[in-house]
Structure formats: C-alpha cells, structure tokens
Amino acid sequence: MAGRALSVHTGVYMGGWDTCITSTTGYIAGEEAAAHAADVCPDDMDMDAALSGLNDTLNLLGKPGVAPKDVVRRMQEIVNPVDVSILKTGRGLSRALAELEDARDNILPLLTASVPHYLLKLAEARAMTLLTEIYLKSALARKESRCGHFREDYPKRQEQIAWVNVEKRDGEICATLAPVPLERYPVKPYRYYMDDFAYPDQPLSE
Q1: Helices within the chain (DSSP H only)
Q2: Which of 7, 20, 59, 180 has CA 20 to 30 A from 121's CA?
Q3: H or E element: which one contains 174?
C-alpha cells in the first residue's frame, strides 16, 4: 500500500508530484518486501498463525455485512471537508479523527466480501482506513503551514524542519515530530517551495 499512500495531494496540484511519490515509495516498499521474503525461512514461520489469519479473512466470504465500497465512501466523506483537507484547522481535524475512530471501531469489523474478488477490495478498505488515521494524526501533529499543508490556526512556517514519525504504540497509531539533523547536511536549505506563494500571516477565522 505504500505506493498508494499519496495518490491525491490535496491543496497543491494533481499529477506529476504524486506520480513521483507513488512510484518511488512503491518501488522502495517492493524492494524491501522482496529482501525480507528472501531472508525468511519457511521453517521459522508460524504456519498455524498464518492459516488462522488467512481463514479469518476467507470466512468473511458470502456473509451479510458492510461492503468495502461503503467504507471507502465513508473515508472520503471524512477527509473531504475543506477544514480537513485544504484549509485545515485543529477543530476540523479533531472532528474528522473522531468520525474516523467511530468508523474504524464500529463499521470496519462488519466488512464482508460477496465474492472472492472483493477480498482485495476489503483489504484496500482496511488499508485506506489506516491511511486516513495516519493522515489525520500527522496533520494534527504539524502545528505549522508548509507547502501543501496549510493549518488555518497555525498559518506560519516553523523554522525547524521536522519529520513526522508514525508508529503503533500499545495498539494505537501515534504521530510525533523529529527535527531533521540539518547540521549533518552539506547543503542547507535556504529557500522553500512555499516561498512562491502568498500565505496569510494570521488565522483566516476565529
């Protein structure tokens, strides 16, 4: 799913940039997955756990429940509002996160597949739900405006450049900021993409 994590970059433009990102992350993920698979010895695999996981998914075939397309549509509804995807606000992102958590906990477990083809769609719907949660928590962690990420409640760019690190802790997705060690870089940034745009220097609304 790495190659699909940034299929549409809202707030900037659609096209070349996202093609580069999806192609590059997909290539990296594929290489890493292949290297990992080559190092895994079948004798070391827990076949009972693997079969149990497979059967948990296969058992969803033909049962009544929620179709994958309904989960995808719900994720689109959650991120579609302007205060979530373009002129982001803490209030809008928090509202969307609450809606996401409700869908994740109460709708996602009801996913089923009417025919085998939709088992793939089921996996994609689960992945889209995870990516939506990562997007929202990462946007909340970034209390600044930079490039295509505009926070109406934090309209200025922070001078410290930081990576957003996402990891799972005790079953919860957590997003934290880590300063980029620019002192180790031989070439320091002196101009930013967003310098080409006129961003408001104060919140647009109270």
Answers
A1: 16-39, 47-58, 68-79, 82-85, 90-106, 117-141
A2: 20
A3: strand 172-179
Could you give the percent of the chain with pLDDT greater than 70?
A: 84
Q: What is d(CA 130, CA 116) in angstroms, rounded to the nearest whole number? A: 22
Nearest one of 104, 176, 110, 170 to 137, comparing CA atoms: 176
Q: What is the dihedral of CA 86, 91, 97, 99, to 10 degrees?
A: -100
- Given 3-state DSSP classes, what are the helix, strand and coil percentages for the chain, each rounded to the nearest 5? 55, 15, 35
Higher-confidence position of 54 and 170 = 170
What mean pLDDT comes out for the span 111-136? 91
CA distance 12 to 114: 38
For the cut 60, the answer to whether the pLDDT of residue 129 exceeds it is: yes
Residues 141, 129: Cα–Cα separation, whole Å: 19
